[in-house]
């Protein structure tokens, strides 16, 4: 009987419980959905769609040299409001997509590393071409008291668009298929 109990204990110590796999899968899905929310906010030029993504005490470190570190969800949303207002004023629209290359989940904290690509579509009557810019991004998410993942840190800098297109898909990570390379 003692050998049976030891063998049973070893089996449970080495086998990942089914509920843990489901929890990991649910976390992957929830973290990936944040990127879809971001895409939807850009498409609608609606910064209020970003409110659920950011934690109240989030920090945003933008790529622009002339913009300081932004602290707090309200300040981050206000920054996006100004950006979206400029796009709306030009009667243009924008799109964004992401390709994650790495995710590290440790307990209630997750760090994502990805590329992003933003496309600017001027009004048709201007006959201006579509333009794009890309960058590298790191987000740090934490589960809040309600078990919801929210971004605590969002940092980005510029990169060549080709890096976005060259990023290979990774299992369980958000991988946007929204864009093809622009033809020149």
What does this structure look like?
The chain has one domain (2-166): Nuclear Transport Factor 2, Chain: A. The chain contains four helices and six strands. It has helices at residues 2-14, 18-44, 73-89, 161-166, and strands at residues 54-61, 70-71, 93-106, 109-121, 131-143, 149-159. The protein is globular. It starts with a helix and ends in an 18-residue tail after the last helix. The model is unreliable at 4-22 (pLDDT under 50). Residues 36-95 form the SnoaL-like domain. Keywords: Signal. Pfam families: SnoaL_2.
List the helices and strands and how they pair.
Layout: H1 2-14, H2 18-44, E1 54-61, E2 70-71, H3 73-89, E3 93-106, E4 109-121, E5 131-143, E6 149-159, H4 161-166
Parallel strand pairs: 1-6
Antiparallel strand pairs: 1-2, 3-4, 4-5, 5-6
Signal peptide: 1-20
Keywords: Signal
Domain SnoaL-like: 36-95
Give a quick set of tags describing it.
alpha+beta; six-stranded mixed sheet; Nuclear Transport Factor 2, Chain: A; globular; signal; 4 helices; 184 residues
Sum up the overall morphology in one term: globular
Unreliable residue runs: 4-22
The fold-level CATH name is Nuclear Transport Factor 2, Chain: A
Number of helices: 4
Percent of residues in beta strands?
Answer: 25-35%
Mean pLDDT across all amino acids? 88
Query: What's the structural domain tally?
Result: 1
Based on secondary structure, the structural category is: alpha+beta
């Amino acid at each position: 009987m003692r050998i049976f109990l030891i063998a049973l204990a070893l089996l449970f110590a080495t086998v990942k419980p089914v509920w843990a796999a489901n929890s990991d899968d649910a976390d992957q899905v929830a973290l990936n959905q944040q990127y879809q929310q971001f895409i939807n906010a850009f498409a609608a030029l609606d910064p209020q769609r970003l409110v659920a993504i950011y934690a109240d005490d989030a920090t945003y470190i933008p790529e622009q040299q002339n913009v300081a570190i932004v602290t707090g969800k309200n300040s981050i949303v206000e920054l996006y409001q100004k950006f979206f207002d400029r796009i709306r004023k030009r009667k243009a629209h924008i799109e964004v997509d992401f390709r994650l290359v790495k995710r590290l989940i440790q307990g209630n904290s997750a760090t994502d590393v990805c590329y992003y690509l933003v496309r600017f579509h001027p009004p048709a009557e201007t006959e201006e071409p579509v333009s794009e810019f890309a960058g590298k991004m790191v987000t740090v998410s934490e589960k809040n008291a309600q078990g919801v993942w929210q971004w605590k840190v969002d940092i980005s800098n510029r990169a060549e668009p080709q890096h976005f297109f060259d990023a290979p898909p990774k299992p369980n990570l958000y991988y946007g298929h929204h864009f093809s390379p622009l033809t020149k």
